[in-house]
Amino acid sequence: MLDGYTAEILARVQFAFTVSFHIIFPAFSIGLASFLAVLNALWLWKREETYLKLFNYWKKIFAVAFGMGVVSGIVMSYQIGTNWSVFSDKAGPVVGPLMAYEVLSAFFLEAGFLGIMLFGRKRVGDGLHMFATALVALGTLASATWILSVNSWMQTPAGFGINDVGQFVPEDWWAIVFNPSFPYRLVHMVLAAYLTTALVVGAVGGLHLLRDHADRAARRMFSMAMWMLLLVTPLQILAGDMHGLNTLEHQPAKVMAMEGHYDSHPDGAPLILFGIPNPEEKRINYAIQIPKLSSLILKHDLNAPLDGLDTIPDEDEP
Q1: How many Å from the N-terminal Cα to the C-terminal Cα in the chain?
Q2: Which of 181, 201, 224, 309 shows a CA-CA span of 20 to 30 A to 45?
Q3: Which stretch of DSSP H or E encloses residue 26?
Q4: pLDDT of 284-305, one tens digit each?
Q5: In angstroms, how far is CA 189 from the centroid of its own chain?
Q6: DSSP helix/strand/coil, 6
Q7: Cα separation of 163 and 248, whole Å?
């Protein structure tokens, strides 16, 4: 059944499934933790029961999402070692400490105060409960910071040397953590998490409003979600554009492959909406494309030239 599939392809498929499943939960819980902190603060400020009701409703969902993120994250961590053992050996001196920092600082911060946030309001008082909720939200953002630093270093490595056995070893932790693509990836991911949460909260609020138009809590969460979408969406468009420009600068071959540009385009490159890559003939079969739009997106100029994979030796193609 698996004849023709190499161990590398199978490892990629398995890891892609694990990562795709895992990211659903952090992307939701990062934004939801901040939403809970806002709800708790509004409850303390205005003392409106609606905010307390919403907080108690969404904290249960956060607990489930957080737990699923932890469980799927453990599986993903194991697969980094089992599926990509050579990479783990070579990059371990850099990647290992960064992932350890995420656990020791961010995860422990979240886990340490999660119980107080979920069960401690009547035991510790409103002030300390608010403090715990804020630290859980801060922990999710800190977790995203460390993980995005690791991921960004894999894309745009900096601050390292290579020892006698071929391992990447740290030489400048500041350069490693704040590598060239890190700020763009972090902002893009956090905004994506807030958008994800806003869409989920808005959808749930809309569903409750369909059932009961007079539901004040549903109306309030729907309104908050729509305002969040209105504020964050333009920022995400800007952040995504800056992230794309950064990727073109530091990883042009990656952009060529993502865009499906086997050939260079000296007078403006099309944006390929759909097609089937044909690596043997180095072209995109059945391509549906919009002329010059890729140049506009990547260089803000319809007629800007874009290099293709024909400028890269075959052995170096991504």
Answers
A1: 27
A2: 201
A3: helix 7-46
A4: 899 899 999 999 999 999 999 9
A5: 4
A6: coil
A7: 30
Could you tell me if 168 and 157 are in contact, meaning their C-beta atoms sit under 8 angstroms apart? yes
User: Between the CA atoms of 156, 297, 230 and 34, what dihedral angle is there, to the nearest 10 degrees?
Assistant: -10
Q: Which amino acid is at 192?
A: A
Q: Specify whether the CB–CB gap between 52 and 43 falls below 8 A.
A: yes
Pair type for strands 271-278 and 160-162: unpaired
In angstroms, rounded to a whole number, what is the distance separating the alpha carbons of residues 251 and 153? Answer: 12
Q: What is the dihedral of CA 249, 254, 260, 266, to 10 degrees?
A: 30
**Predicted model pTM:** 0.90
Token code pair at residue 17: 């499934």
Euclidean distance between CA atoms 113 and 119, whole angstroms: 10
Render 224-264 in DSSP notation, one character per residue. HHHHHHHHHHHHHHHHHHHHHHHHHHH-HHHHHHHHT--S-
Region 139-166 average pLDDT: 94
